[in-house]
Amino acid sequence: MPMVRRSAATNIGKFAATVEAPHLKVDIMSMFDDLTQDDQDSVRLLAVEGCAALGKLLEPQDCVARILPVIVNFSQDKSWRVRYMVANQLYELCEAVGPEPTRLDLVPAYVRLLRDNEAEVRIAAGGKVTKFCRILNPELAVQHILPCVKELSTDSSQHVRSALASIIMGMAPVLGKDATIEQLLPIFLSLLKDEFPDVRLNIISKLDQVNQLVIIFKILLTLAILIICFGAAVGKTTCNEHVIGIDLLSQSLLPAIVELAEDRHWRVRLAIIEYIPLLASQLGVGFFDDKLGALCMQWLKDKVYSIRDAAANNVKRLAEEFGPDWAMQHIFPQVLDMINNHHYLYRMTILHAISLLAPVMGSDITCSKLLPVVINVSKDRVPNIKFNVAKVLQSLIPIVDQFVSGAEDNPSMLGIFFFASQALESSDLVMMSS
To answer: Which of 7, 38, 286, 373 is the most exposed, having the fewest neighbouring CB atoms within 10 Å of its CB?
Structure first.
């Protein structure tokens, strides 16, 4: 009965682990052979799971003789569901059979699965690309697997491209610096510009995986400018190497970042915002101001609240990275301009940004520059603005109180002291009314 055979195929690996070696090689393998030739594809696909389990129990030479031919045949099975199971299990057999059988038999089988007619099989095979490449040496991966990856990056199925985008970043440590720049980078950029938003989002969400390059290759800032766009952090470099990195960033990656920063899907924009402070820390003030500074302020006026909120936090992290003086020169003038924006939601965002910036800027700058702005906005006609002014003032109390206690006897601070005292009085009124 098919039901009984399916149950046998499901549990043959567990059962084989409990029997002695002579019974395994004779009795268990005989049953396994029968299951792999069953006319029901529901039995055969369950037998695929037994291939990996039995392969780990057998000696390498027995695994090559008994399991390898089965898995190769299964990779060409007429049922796509069987091929799907093979695509999920194939990489587990590589260690069991050894490098030479892997190169001669399993790599060709895997390539066939990556180019299978069924999208579901390509999705399963593509999802294991990184794991499979880790087993191979880099030369084999570049020669046999990478061409298939390039094909999958332009696959007609958006779900195949999405599956590839979720794992492709992990290939960078396997392929190495040169192959990453020359062959993998164009695929990254292609997926970053994919018309399907989940593809773009998947590759952005996995950018931090490239951090492993720092450990594995110990590469310096030559690759930092390339990899930092994918969330990596690296060290120092020579002048010539830095120029190469900056040119690569300017010509290839920066346009992709700018395009994604203005993506029509807000989740993609949100994912990019999260990497901006890390990017800023590696590029430095000059390059960041020239290329990406305007984007950070642009996000404060995004139509989606989550983007505006993330942008406010982003401004705070940039101020922490570059310091209060930089923030006074590059952020504060634009904050002053946006606080008068006709759209009240944007004014609320600026208030939120001010509350986040205040602890970073320190009590002197907060009381002399930020506090007068907040007090002036308290006269806004929109009730929600006034409510948020009250919240901001309450959050500023510890900073203002610290300043007031140290400035009462300093005549040069009388103007700032006035605003600080006024803020404390406003906060007291808010507390009393609540």
So the answer is: 286
